[in-house]
Amino acid sequence: MDNLYIQIEDTLPVNHPAYESNLIEAFGEVPPNWVPFVRVDAPLLGVYRKFDTSQGHEGCGCEYVATSDGFTDVWHILSMTSDERLEAKAASKPRFITTWAFDEPTCTWNAPTDPPSDESLYIWRDSDLTWVELVGTRPSDGDYYFNVNSESWVLIPTRPSDAALFNDQTGEWVSE
């Protein structure tokens, strides 16, 4: 495995880590002002958690912190505010589906019934609260959607100038 190093100036890290092999290729050795760096992958965020973009470099919520052996990534995570939780709820709501219920602990919207558990793919039909099996192959000669009412692939109609969104439940363009 190729080790990582980070450049140090006045005891602080400069730029981003580089692979040892790249440093040797560029300089013939690891320069003395480069120290070992341990990469720590970004953690998976829990529900209603976010990276603290006020911390670290380039607004990513990660900073390079000195250790006894060099430097490493340290990730900063915050809980969302009440307003951010409401925004997450609104952003995750399926468009044009009115019958799904919001599950607060998981920040997910759920259909009134679970989809079938076989290997097929299904799409929710809101009009009669059923799962419709996605059948056939989407044609490649244009922009198609799977019409849940006819249970077939249908060419998306030309978008009117006053329309913003396509409602795949009704097959119509709508304004926001």
Give structural notes.
With 176 residues, the chain is mainly beta. The mean pLDDT is 94. It folds into two domains: 4-79, no CATH class; 94-174, no CATH class. Helix content is 11%, strand content 37%. The termini are far apart. The relative contact order is 0.09. A hairpin with a 4-residue loop joins strand 14 and strand 15. The protein is elongated. It has helices at residues 20-27, 82-92, and strands at 4-9, 12-19, 34-38, 49-51, 62-67, 70-75, 77-79, 101-103, 108-110, 122-125, 130-133, 144-147, 152-155, 165-167, 172-174.
Helix content: 10-25%
pLDDT average, as an integer?
94
Number of strands: 15
Shape: elongated
Low-confidence stretches: none
Task: Kindly give the count of domains.
Answer: 2
